[in-house]
Amino acid sequence: MPPHRTIAAAKQKKMYAVHFHRAVLLFCITAVCSVTVLIYIQLPPGFRLVNFISNDGAWEGDLRGADFAWNKLYFNGDSPPPAVLRIAVFSKKWPTSSDPGGMERHAQTLYAALAARGHHIHVFTSPANPLVAASLSYTNPVIHFHDGEPNNWQYEKAWEMFEEEDSHRKFDVIHTESVALPFRLAERLPNLAVSWHGIAYEIMQSSIFQDLIRKPDEPQSNDFIRTLNETLPKLLKEIRFFSKYAHHVAITDSCGEVLRNVYQIPSRRVHVILNGVDQRTFVDDPETGLKFRSQIGIPQTATLVLGVSGRLVRDKGHPLLFDAFSKLKVRHPDVYLIVAGTGPWGSRYRELGSQVLVLGSLDPVRLKGFYNAIDVFVNPTLRPQGLDLTLMEAMMSGKPIMASNFPSIKGSLVVDDEFGFTFPPNADSLYEALELAASEGKERLRRRGLACKKYAAAMFTAGKMALAYERLFLCIYNESYCFYP
Ligand SMILES: *[C@@H]1O[C@H](CO)[C@@H](O)[C@H](O)[C@H]1NC(C)=O
Ligand SMILES: *[C@@H]1O[C@H](CO)[C@@H](O)[C@H](O)[C@H]1NC(C)=O
């Protein structure tokens, strides 16, 4: 072998060796990193290096340092609270109709539960229909309707009533539902918490998906253009003024993250408390489900029954479900879709023929029948602001869910693949998810549903939500209550 080739070969050998060493080194670094990452990922969110974890795995520490949902913690609802609080609440509306919105339902459920625990609650809200207001003669919560037009919120008037009441006896804690109390007043109150039910950042994200489902020949609506135009300035404004509120309650894990990371609110002032639904109203009751099926005329040969409920409007994703189910029903003549709720898409669904049952809005008894009659609850929403109550109701009723893969949904509801299916909000992906559910069959879906029920019963009960809020209010009232357990 000529000398120069030997040298070249030796050089090459050396280079291989160097490469090999680098490769080993790289491999080791990667391995160490992956292990670290794996450990990091496998810890439940919030348990990440935040605080001391005791031997039995229970969390201990300053609750203000917790970045996970407080619903994960155990609170003893059997013993009375360590202190009875006087709590003022600002809410633009108080539910007086039979069909209140999500935010009002949240407020009503929460304050009824806190009053039942013995706290003294005063709600400051807009005028109701006089007849309704007269019928609300509770002593706790006390509802202070300011004067003026029904449902026309004027915070100055509410603030006056609050000051009057506060001058008799100081409130321990003040809570505002979103911006009912604007920051110029709120910033004076160190013992105030605000619960955010939908923020501009989430509106921006949902605007993106709403526009992406537009067909090529479909114009943007004027309302939508206005929203687009207003959202970015609104977001910037929010980032500037949100920090003026002392304590923030995010009602989803993802909202908590956005408040900390995008809105830059100090972590110790951001607390995640998921909403709750009434565990007595939403129960797993297969017999009721079967009865409901036969009442509405679903044949016993049905292989799969899907359900959707809520307002039947475009931004709840009904165009997606309409397209996807049109395809699915041809391939699966024994699959049915039950549609509960009202809105423009109701009549469109009727066009799909006998595999779709459009029921209109349901009273609580029929709603229970509805949830129990279905195999999967579908919610293709394009606008998940806050936490969708219907998803929690379905899970509480023991049903797996199929929902858009927004961070709020993946971060707080479908936190385990077992709980159902998430899909990017477009008709093709929804169709794929529907096919997958159809191929799994109802026994498999039933097991998923039971896993949902277990999780919901631990996390989303109204009682759990109320106890978590109670603990937050105690912590705001006196720091010694911030230390858990
Ligand atoms: C968009 O916002 C700007 C500034 O706020 C306003 O002048 C303009 O009229 C808005 N355009 C539309 C289409 O709403
Ligand atoms: C807070 O609570 C602790 C323990 O109950 C008590 O010792 C302390 O005086 C309280 N502080 C205030 C400011 O009320």
From TrEMBL:
Q: Which UniProt keywords apply?
A: Glycosyltransferase, Membrane, Transferase, Transmembrane, Transmembrane helix
Q: Which GO terms describe its molecular function?
A: glycosyltransferase activity
Q: What residues form the membrane-spanning segments? A: 20-41
Query: Which stretches make up the Glycosyl transferase family domain?
Result: 304-446
Supply the SUPFAM superfamilies for this chain. Answer: UDP-Glycosyltransferase/glycogen phosphorylase
Please report the stretch or stretches of sequence annotated as the Glycosyltransferase subfamily 4-like N-terminal domain.
100-278
The record's listing under InterPro entries reads: Glyco_trans_1 (IPR001296), Glyco_trans_4-like_N (IPR028098)
The superkingdom of the source organism is Eukaryota
Q: Does the keyword DNA-binding apply?
A: no
Cite the Pfam families for this sequence.
Glyco_transf_4 (PF13439), Glycos_transf_1 (PF00534)
Protein name according to UniProt = Glycosyltransferase subfamily 4-like N-terminal domain-containing protein
Source organism of this protein record: Genlisea aurea
